[in-house]
Amino acid sequence: MSSPSKKTLSVDTVSLIVSVGLFVFTARWFTRTERQRRELGLWGARKNIPSHGGGATGNSRTHQNNAANQGSVAEGAIGSRGLVALDTPRVAYLEDFMYCLHNACDHIRNPTGHIGMCVAENKLILDVLAERLMQIGTATAAFSDSTVYCYNSFLGLPVARDAVAYFLAKRFLLSDDVVEPEVALQHIQPHHVAMASGCAAVLHYLFFILGEQGECCLIPAPYYAAFDSDMKSLAGIEPFGFQMANATLGPTEQDLNLAYIEAMSKGLTPRFVLLTNPNNPLGVVYKPQVLRDTIQWARKRNLHTIVDEIHALSTHGANPFGQQQQHISSSKQQQHTQRGSQSSYPPHHNLSGLQGNSNNNHDGSFQSVIKVLNNELGNDVHMVWALSKDFGASGLRVGVLYSQNENFMRALLASNISIFSCVSGPIQYVVSELLTDDAFIDQFLEESQERLRRSYEICVLKLEEMVVPFVPAEAGLFVYVDFSSLLPQKTFEWERKLSELMFTHARIVLTPGETMKERTPGNFRICYAWVSCEVLEIAMERLSRLIGKVRRMDWSDLDERTLVGIL
Fold first, then answer.
1. CA 546 to CA 498: how far, in whole Å?
2. DSSP letters for 212-225
3. What angle do CA 476, 477, 483 make, to 5 degrees?
4. Quick one: 508 and 526 in the same domain?
5. Which residue has the higher pLDDT, 35 or 421?
6. For residues 455 and 477, what is the distance between their CA atoms, to the nearest angstrom?
7. How many domains are there within the chain?
8. DSSP assignment letter at 342
9. Which of 215, 208, 216 is nearest to 235 (CA)?
10. Domain extent at residue 57
11. pTM, full prediction
């Protein structure tokens, strides 16, 4: 009886071994096949992601997200948020600008180099700022206090928030020659002040704490191109640019009503209104009544109003050159119409800034929203500023928020999101000393405004010579120019072709209007303060030669042979 038993056991054992083997083989085959399928799916999804952003369809984005969830870390898979980031279109001129950095024009060492005038930075005043900050006492104070090495409020060190409060009171609210610190701090209270690594971080605070994902922010267009990412990337607030009857005068009640209705019709709920004053890219200063009316309109609809005043101290008035402008002849003005170069902006704002701006209805003076509202901002008005423009110090990464909304400030502190974008302790100490040095700031701002006027004059005099319309700038680091008459067809495709001509043959990069939600193709922003006066003259001369050839020739004939001699 034992032999059959052993034989049966042997058969069972063999069957078991065969079954296990088949199972293992099948499992391995299935796993390998599934992995290959997923890898192919992931590769196919990535293949559809444009290298420089672009318009992926909703289906392809879903496919990308599914592939990301299925792929392995070793294969380089990223999450859905990462894929959305990859799918976000990059700023059109960014690559060209980066190229300019590697082959920058120098009027002595590299006069044929590239010139980037698409970034609003004030490089004209850096020598004055650097000399002040390199003083031994400044550096010693910044590193000798032990508090800069330790954890503190991520909204700012007490000494820094006190300094910012004093600065805002003196420069934005009171505007008196002499303001005692204790008086200033009675007006602007330090606990209403927060610091962050630039205005973008400050705006993120506001959108993240006060808004809900999917709500929108109404922004008068054209507007600063990076606002889109400032509000959308992390907070999930949708930017909604709207056009105005007269962009240089600011939004009216009718403009705002139409924008609100249009946003709602597209399924977006407005939560914010964002104003930039002085305006970027137009360079105009809004009248106080424009601010009051916009805030009143927003309050009726329970919206927050954010006022970005990052160019507040870079003003040069509506007629910065005084009586110099009288030599411009009326025949020169008429050439604009004769040569088809009428600006897309209303007649009293087009053509040249050298006409004294007599019909502008602006006096060019700036008033902060803090002063306009007599420092009664309430819970719904918030002001932002930074060192980036007025002090030419975007690399220091210091932004300022002033809000009287106690709940917002408490939530900002409690959420701890400021840990991701706080300002380093030593820099806060440097800034606190800088912002309370009244004698230096008086001298610095006067020198800065003078240098800005000088460069602005170089720019607009050449534009006048070229018979090119532009919006007369009252503030800021740029001038808004209308090249639409050069386009064979008024489309953004032709605007992009003009940009390519400028980069390829004149080696110049300007900010295209399309990136700033401009409604009329052919408008560009020239950031004249990004380069020295000498390089600016080279740039404007190249631009003049290019425009001359574009006007004389058919676009089909514009090539390396016909455009020789521009550099």
1. 10
2. -TT-EEEEESS--T
3. 105
4. yes
5. 421
6. 9
7. 3
8. -
9. 208
10. 23-87
11. 0.82
